[in-house]
Amino acid sequence: MYLAHSLQHPIRQTTTLHECQSVSRRLRPISVSSIERLRQRTNATSNFLFEGTGHNARALKINVSVTRPLTSSDVDNSANCPKLRVAYQGVPGAHSEAAAGKAYPNCEAIPCEFFETAFEAVEARLVDRAVLPIENSLGGSIHRNYDLLLRHNLHIVGEVQHAVRHCLLALPGVNFEEINRVLSHPQALPQCEHTLTKLFTTKVPVREAVDDTAGAAQYIAINKLQDAAAIASSRAADLYGMNILASDIQDDQDNVTRFLMLAREPIIPRSGKPFKTSIVFSLEEGPGVLFKALAVFAMRDINLTKIESRPSKKRPLRICDDGNGMRSKYFDYLFYVDFEASMADSNSSNALNHLKEFSTFLRVLGSYPMDVNQP
């Protein structure tokens, strides 16, 4: 089978995890081309997916009929399902891989090249779930994933908060004096800026941004770079045979990233336990419309935990008459809101029905159990 066969020849030294603990086999991250090959092999009515590699690949019959929505009990039970395949962005050793293991402890974590590849892998049934970052306590929102939530038809079925612990890694035998550059993810570099300044007292290494933290460690290991260090996890050091020069180098010890758990089907919300609901909407023209939109929650004592605005891709500029015969241009926005309530509560339904009265678009991205555990 061509797709399965293409995954058995790694182009990078990457490792996927079985049950998120032990290294099971070598494969490259799922790529955009892998998704496209699957689409070419299957159409919208296809009943087959492929499992295995090379000559051992076999076609699996899958049910393409409409499935029932997941319940929150299904989500709880799926955390212990040994066959669950969970996509994350990056390579083994990435913080996203650790978050996938925290969200689904017995999963098989599947690396993907890009955020969008993880979305597409779930839609194409290459994997069962995706776990992707949405915001960091220091770096703020991951805007790309907000845009992808709207572009794709996946549902938020849960969240997990992961404490990020950065380490400074280098090849064995390399010391601080030899390091001329530090590689890591664009968000990880500023998270460690003050600590790096203290560690390098005689010179200032150049900061270089790469796709992910573990990818920085992998790149240094593969190319045997003696003048470079990576900001990555301690697990990345173990995977790629690197030394830890310094641990916990993040400037703020309360460095937490919130990840979303995504699935093809929504869960059935229920009351009686802490739930969060995520929505996205756009508003009509007029004074005070945003105030009215937020007031529908305040008047019902619904707590908002997150508000994010993003430019509308379909209509980035809105042309309005200012009442004096002049036409003005304004940015047109989508508003993403998280609030602490379940869609099983009539209070939430009433709030959204009220919001529809002056919104031009409204979509519920998911109503799901809150992560109330310590990161």
From TrEMBL:
Q: State where the protein is found.
A: Plastid, Chloroplast stroma
Please list the residue ranges annotated as the ACT domain: 278-369
Q: Which organism is it from?
A: Rhynchospora pubera
Q: Which reaction does it catalyse?
A: prephenate + H(+) = 3-phenylpyruvate + CO2 + H2O; L-arogenate + H(+) = L-phenylalanine + CO2 + H2O
Task: Extract the PROSITE patterns matched here.
Answer: ACT (PS51671), PREPHENATE_DEHYDR_1 (PS00857), PREPHENATE_DEHYDR_2 (PS00858), PREPHENATE_DEHYDR_3 (PS51171)
Q: What is the lineage of its organism?
A: Eukaryota, Viridiplantae, Streptophyta, Embryophyta, Tracheophyta
Which GO BP annotation is one of this protein's?
L-phenylalanine biosynthetic process
Task: From the UniProt annotation, give the residues forming the signal peptide.
Answer: none
Protein name, as recorded: Arogenate dehydratase
Keywords (A to Z) from UniProt: Amino-acid biosynthesis, Aromatic amino acid biosynthesis, Chloroplast, Lyase, Phenylalanine biosynthesis, Plastid, Transit peptide
> Tell me, what does this protein do in biology?
Converts the prephenate produced from the shikimate-chorismate pathway into phenylalanine.
- Give the enzyme's EC designation: 4.2.1.91
